[in-house]
Design brief:
Blueprint (H helix, E strand, L loop, with lengths): L20 H17 L4 H8 L3 H8 L7 H10 L4 H14 L1
Helix pairs in contact: 1-5, 2-3, 2-4
Length: 96
């Protein structure tokens, strides 16, 4: 009796996305609006959150999303609670 070998592919399936565009856009709008509200530049936010400035730009334009640690650092740098950031996010998400 022959034993068949199953091919195991690693990583995401071809064509899949790791970021939902609607989520990325809403999170980006949220971070940008909170940053502007506190009068902070992208560079100042990046420095305070220990994130690259170009990364902040990509997040705010919805081209990428930060991981959870990044969200925590950004919220702290904006002097905003995670729950406050998420409430703002929910509003932007509902509009989007």
């Amino acid at each position: 009796m022959a034993v068949s070998k199953k091919v195991v592919r690693r990583g995401r399936p071809s064509g899949s996305q790791s970021t939902d565009p609607k989520v990325a856009a809403a999170l980006g709008k949220t971070i940008a609006s909170l940053r502007v509200a506190v009068g902070m530049s992208q560079e100042a936010l990046a420095l305070a959150a220990n994130v690259g400035r170009s990364n902040i730009s990509m997040i705010e334009t919805g081209r990428t999303t930060p991981n959870f640690v990044g969200v925590v650092r950004i919220a702290a740098a904006l002097n905003c609670s995670l729950s406050g950031l998420m409430q703002e996010f929910e509003q932007h998400y509902a509009e989007g």
